[in-house]
Every structure is written in C-alpha cells, then in structure tokens.
Amino acid sequence: MQSHGTFLTVVLSAAAACWLGWPTAADRPDARPSPEEVRDQAVARVERSLAWADDASRGCVALELAPLDEFFADVKTRTPRFAEGVLGWSSKWRFVADKLPFAKGGRHAEFLRQAFNEQLFAPDDLSRAIEQVARGYGDSLTEIENQMLVKLREDLSDLPPETLPRFSDPSTLSAAYQAALQRTAAHIGSDLKGDVSREVVSLIAGEVLAQVAVRLGVSAGILGAGASSSWATLGAGLVVGLIVDQLVSWVWDWWADPRGNLAAELNAKFDALRAMIVEGDAGTPGLRSALEDFGRRRAELRRAAVLDLLKNQGM
C-alpha cells in the first residue's frame, strides 16, 4: 500500500506542477539539447544562407562580363580611322614593295600590325580585358562568401555558443572557414581552395584564350600568328589575321577606298571574336560557361566546407 501511495503522490505532484506552472524536468537547464542536436539544427538553418550565396554567384556572371562588351564597343568606334589608314597609299605602297624582286618583304605586315596596335588595341590588351572579367568574378565570389558568413552567424545566433565555438565572432569564423576550404578541397581532390580571384584568373582566363587561339588560329597565318597565338600573343596577331584577307583584297583596288565597308567588316569580325570568347561554340567553351562552371564547383566546395565547420567543431 505504501508503494501505491508513493506513486500517487508523484503523479499528483507532477500534475500540480504543470497546473501551477512550476518548472519541470523538461524546463530545467540540464535538459537542454545535446551538442549533436544543436548541430543538426544548425545544419538545417544554414541552407538558406548557402542558397543565397549560390543564387548571388550565378547572378553576377553577366555583370562581370560587361567590361568585355565595353572593350569591344570601344574598339569598334575606332575602326573607321583604322580602315582609312590601312587602305591609304602608304599601305598600298608597302604591299607592292614587298612583291618587288629582291625585296626583303614583311613591311606591309609590320605596317598593319603597328596600325592595329596603335589605333585599335595592343597585343596584351585583350588578354588584360579577359583577366579583368575573371578577376572581377573572383572578387565578387569572395565578397559573396564574406556576406554569407555574416548571414550564417545570424542564422545561428540563438543557438548555444559553446556548442558552435567557430561561429563565436567574425574573425574566428573567417579563419575557420578558410581552413575548412583547404581541408575539404584536399579531401575531395578539388583544385579550388582559398584565393578565389587568383584561381579564377589562372584556371579560366588563360584556358579560354588558349582555346580561342587554337580555334581561330588557322585564319591568322598571313601575319605569322597562326595556331601558336596564345595567352601572351592573342592581340593584334590573331585579330588582324581574321580580317587581313579581306583587307588585302581591298588594297588592290587602287581607285577606290571603301573605308566604310571595311570598317563595317572589321566590326562584324570583332562581334564574332567577342561571341567566340564569351559564348564559345560547340567545340570551344566560352568565358560565360567557364565562369558558370567555376561557380558551380565553388558552390559545392563552399557547402562542404560549411558542413565541415558545423559537424567537426573540435577540429
């Protein structure tokens, strides 16, 4: 009978505690979620910030390509003057002089190259324009990830800080995130690590230029650029090669200088070159798709690094 009485007393006491609002075992500090439960909650919460970073990185591709469009638009404003010079008597004289017996040759080609460099763009200008796009995209990704870290701390701000020490302050989180990127990249065999801007330039800009040079090199032989045009030489050599056959045919027209037609042809060639660089074709990926692919791979690494931070707080 005493055991029945004790049980009844416990039940009545619990009922009274609930009715009167007294603290129960579930309300006491020692009943707080375990570290594992906190981390599970954190994993669920960070999805919003990770999704924001993914959307932002996709959205900035078009914005970062804009300077390359401006580069070609500016070049096209100068093609009329260039056309006037390369169809003038000085150009024609050099072309004929190269064909004379015992002539050394090469004077007309050098004249075209110099005119191109001075009036349109120098050999390395296009390379720098593409590097600017790649570096700008890398800088944007870095800024997006910095903002993501701020959002992550906000997402987790009401969880027990002792369970998530790496998220305790901005500097600690930033250092931990960079370390997690390195660990995760090594674990999954990724070539993407910490310095996003440098990686985008080294992995994308040079590759895109090399592919375009090989793709268009067969049209550049008359000025000696050929398929050897590459990161450092894909300036005047390759682009002049694209238009030189048409230019030479007009040089033979001694009594007419169709400058407007040549300028229009040059602009069309620059549009084609811009499309090849930015959009690519069936056999050559363009800069846009290269940036988008880099962004996707970076998103995978970013997600893996954040999850590493949450699940391995003691490392």
Count helical runs. 12
Please summarize the sheet with the most strands.
none
The portion of residues forming beta strands comes to under 5%
Order of helices and strands: HHHHHHHHHHHH
Q: Give the domain tally.
A: 1
Judging from the principal axes of the Cα atoms, what is the shape? rod-shaped
Poorly predicted ranges (pLDDT <50, ≥5 residues)?
Answer: 7-26, 218-236
DSSP E strands, number: 0
How far apart are the termini? 56 Å
Q: Considering DSSP H and I runs of 4 or more, what fraction of the residues is helical?
A: over 70%
Write down the overall mean pLDDT: 74
Tell me the Rg in angstroms.
32 Å
Question: What labels describe this entry?
Answer:
about 325 residues; rod-shaped
Would you give an account of this structure?
Helices cover 71% and strands 0% of the residues. The chain has 315 residues and is mainly α. The two termini are 56 Å apart. The longest helix has 31 residues, at 125-155. It has one domain (38-311). It contains twelve helices and no strands.
Helices and strands in order:
Blueprint: H1 2-20, H2 35-45, H3 47-76, H4 79-86, H5 89-99, H6 107-119, H7 125-155, H8 170-188, H9 196-216, H10 236-251, H11 259-278, H12 287-311
Helix pairs in contact: 3-7, 3-11, 3-12, 4-6, 4-11, 5-6, 7-9, 7-12, 8-12, 9-12, 10-11
Write a brief caption for the model.
With about 325 residues, the chain is mostly helical. The chain has one domain.
